[in-house]
Here is the input.
Amino acid sequence: MRRQIGSLLLGASLVVGGCATQHESLESCLQVAERGLRPIADDRSQRFLGKVREDTARCRGGERAVDARNLPWIDWQNYWAAGDASSLGSGSLTSHLSSNGRGIDGALLDLEYQRIELIKFNLFDTSGTYEVYVRGRDGVGGPALKVWPQMRLPKGHPQYDAVGGDQTQVCGGDLIRARTLTGICNDLKNPLMGSSHQPFPRNVQFEVTFPELSQEQLTRNRHGDRLDLLKPDPQVISRRLFTRPQSKPEQCREGHGLPGAPIDAGCDYQKAPFFNVLAAFWIQFMTHDWFSHLQEGHNAPGLMSVGCATEVAGCRPGDRIDPAYIAQSGTPPRFTAGGKDRPSRPYKITENTVTAWWDASQIYGYDETSRRRVKRAAGDPAKLLLSPAGRRAGAGERQGYLPLLEASDPMNPQWAGQEAVGFPDNWTIGMSFYHTVFAREHNLFVDAFRAQAIATPDADSGLRNPARPDQVIRYRDVTGDELFEAARLVVAAEIAKIHTTEWTPQLLYDEPLFLGMNANWSGLFRGKEIVQAALEKITVNNFGKSTDVKKATQWYSVFASGPGIFGLGNRVYSDDAIFAAYDPSKTDLWSIKNPDDVNGGTNHFGSPFNFPEEFVTVYRLHTMVPDLIDYRQWDAEPNRIQNKVAVVETLRGRATQAMRERGLANWAISMGRQRLGLLTLANHPQFLQNLEIPRLGSPSGKIDVAALDLVRDRERGVPRFNEFRRQYGLRQLTSFDDFIDTKLPKGSPARAEQARLIGIMREIYGQHRCDASKIITEAQVNADGTKINDCLGKPDGTMVDNVEDVDTVVGWLAEFSRPHGFAISETQFQVFILNASRRLFSDRFFTSSFRPEFYTHLGVAWVNNNGPDKKMEKGLPNGHEVEVSPLKRVLLRTIPELTPELDPVVNAFDPWARDRGEYYSLKWTPRPGAESDPAFRESK
Ligand code: HEM
Here is the structure.
């Protein structure tokens, strides 16, 4: 059975045949083939760790891959074809038999192993289901369970009776027609799952959370008494390890630039050549949809210090912040299973204020309060309210701008003057940008639907009312409210598609991730309809319905990458149960009357879906934001930078003002052309270290957001970096020096700078004399199978680095060694592999309910085609035939005046004027016509 995975998805035979051209590789490949595929670990300490055996490395990447095996970092980054053109070996990329094919296939196989093991070892629900996950119920193993009493609506909930009250709860009728405001009833049988105010789960064992509390013996062994909320001092860490050095501080002025925003203002920052500022704000826009700890823009009552006990240049003892909300705390009940005593939850539990679904709740709201801020067009309830602002040139201007919050709207005073949207906190010019773009897109879909209704009023719109399922709803019958909800579904799915197939492949700019992310959406066998359909049926019907844990989790995950997760289970055929040969002419029996059809394509892998606390940590991406925006005008020589506008001058109400004064198209081209900040040490925006937060009334009136990132993680019990990596199935580090990228030449300035920063890290976190009798983890073992102790492989009594204490954010920022084209570190990426897949797997609107009955026929086609019609990109970018990318299509519709600028752009998150060059090049060179753009005169 194990062999079948390889042969089905990647063709195990390729491994044998592929090495025939190189003698050494051939032998290695034969050995690999004879051994068969690696078994999935039974115990977390035996995990894959992204590290392969020597012969496997040689078969997939030659000696370069073999040499890198002793480093802590994942191996696939060194396989053939996983980098730029210099990583290419022999043979074509599409041939599984060539060295390039082996490299790519090997990388995909490694990624799938990681996902399977993450699903197996990293799900820890905090809503009360964990015990049954471990023990199972009624003879069914926990990971194969699909319904939990904790996911019932509680008595007193307004929809309690509607879903069945104290009987079996199943959502139906109006509650399943579209995405609900609070996110209930996405899963028909688990109504509460993913709704607003559900607890954040964890991806790590409860025992390793809240290391500052020192409650567990292993934790005490790991950290001694070295940790506390403000130990090591977060502001000292921020000032010494995070600050962007400035060559001309007088032109930067802590991120404020110069009065009047002239072009001789300047703030230095380290830039990513392949990712633009639009990408930075995109991810802020996403996080506002997925999770929030704050309630209406504030934390719990009170004020607390945030460090600076030992003064270092720049830090402020007078900074204060309101403490994090804690929903539940106290010693957790324990239970024994499998001979092991376990806590049933962490010491403290935090709550996700917003819906966990990818439902565009930042636009449309997530509870009654936030919904009151969402304004519909007067006289047309299907549309969002947009009105023209000013008289600028540009065809998109007619589509309008969002209205402002009114005094009668629910509002935190600091939001006055901002656009009225569901989630208004931390409002930036980027939030103003995306909210406006997607409000325009919403209305354009409504316009297209209306045009269709005029053309074919009596035709079937596809929509159905579950209360009257047999009644065809013609285009002319669709009400304004129904159309509003269908447009919301379309916008949310477009956003998910942009994120999965456009943002992420540019964030992780290499071939394995291009293929992997497209596989998550549309499958590895895209274009091979019959294979896809067959795999989908096996996934949904055989594995999805199985009560066997392995089938319901591992096999499900593997087979799902064939057809892709999006749309899983949205077709049903009579011979599904005993899958027979696929025939495209068969009748689709999917029925909105059958809850098992509506819900049948989801899989939560035994643990109710929500984003874990650890996910929030790896999205603390503040270094991506530049201090100043190079402001350009689309209709006045885009190659010229007209102003250097301080981001801090475009926050909250001033974002709205800036949007209205300068216009959407100019902000688009400015943020589209500019590179964002690298996620690395010494690169935090100056303005975020000095952010004014008047609402707090603290002595300094300011907060260092970079330091706050560390404080929040400590308040919420995120384990420190090394144990974080072990928990996620990545190899631990044994000293601070492991961070240094040894691929860089010795003596090179880049390597010297890394060594300097690591020296500071050592000064801050310190060293201690180790005690080999102290075991520090159960998540990983040494290469010889012995337990890992406080000495991390060094002799007892040696002075060792306190590498266990490094805050997780500090650790992943310090990962100088990364796979090619990775804007993020491999540790962050590991968290995404699990959770990015789960937010698709768990959502019926992306799987079995991606159907015309909910989206309308027009809506389904709009999502599939990236708009009203399908368009292909010119040429073969990185060797692939690709559709015009979904965000590019949205921008072309909502800001049509940018058509000439966008025409050569392949991915809207790649700096627009960059020449993409050959295979996954990261070079910073101008495309034809942009030679005079001064940004290209900067070397980095
Ligand atoms: C100008 C831009 C930005 C400003 C002014 C800003 C400001 C802030 C502030 C003040 C907090 C702390 C809230 C608290 O815990 O009390 C915060 C949290 C956070 N920020 Fe930003 N931010 C910006 C950009 C970004 C970007 C680009 C990202 C990218 C993902 C991001 C991700 C986050 C995350 C994940 C949190 C934690 C949220 C939570 O705890 O629920 N921010 N930001």
In short: Residues 1-21 have pLDDT under 50 and may be disordered. The chain is about 35% helix and 5% strand. Residues 46 and 783 are 10 Å apart (CA to CA).
